[in-house]
């Protein structure tokens, strides 16, 4: 396809991988933050093209994966209320809560519907004036403008039967949480290009300087990712720590000012719990007081018991880049996409699901290391 095939060109990918092998002289551990990048890396086998010195680990950049179990339980309880239509993106339906999923309660008769945009939920509210329509809003900075617009439009129209269950999270505080961990081995980041399309990348400058780590804003195609890796390796080898923009065809330093204005009008920054990680200060968004009447959490005021993760699931360690999906004893056995123990096995952007679907196993990595050592 025009404007896409050039970023998947095999010869170009091989040349870029060869340049990385030429430049890399020492071991480096890089983290791709975005789940969409993880999907491309695992599906296309990009790790296998890199020299043994370069290790890619997967970060907390899957919005479905980091939605806390308590919020899933709240969405389930809300969906079970009389006259409620709960709307969600498709992946959220299969994410396990403490005892069941949205798909389970849908099978029991709850009115849970898949939508492709918060504006679809807004239309449902217009069409069903005697029902309460709740949109389950998850995601990073990428989805925040559309969600903000839905609330803004509902306010403008006076749609009193529309509300939003908000579980928005932000990328930069998660990166800082990873770097602040005493167990972290991350030395550089591939930053999520689509989030930076909204926010720009000026906020990353302070993180890079504070922790002395290179950060490269990167796209999602194989050539994007390899170029991002090359830029990071060059910085690491030269002892530099800067923010660079590989994704110049889509990202500008200042981002999208119109989108930022709408988000800042409707939302404000708050502390947010991340599934498997815990609370990260100033890492989420909530509705401002002017729009509090559209906050489903306040509207329905559902009391819930404390929820706990499955003791078998190591999703938190996977999301922090401390372990691989195949390090989990339940991976591919008691935890599969059809019967997930944790959210990373559900979403197409989850590392566990990517490893499962594309056959990545521990023995594959060990074979690659042995092959590289022999050559």
UniProtKB/TrEMBL annotation:
- Gene Ontology terms describing biological process: protein maturation
Q: Which NCBIfam families match?
A: hypD
In its UniProt record, a GO molecular function of this protein is: iron ion binding
Q: Which InterPro entries match?
A: Hyd_form_HypD, HypD_1, HypD_2_sf
Q: Where are the transmembrane segments?
A: none
The entry's protein name is Hydrogenase expression/formation protein HypD
Q: Which UniProt keywords apply?
A: Iron, Metal-binding
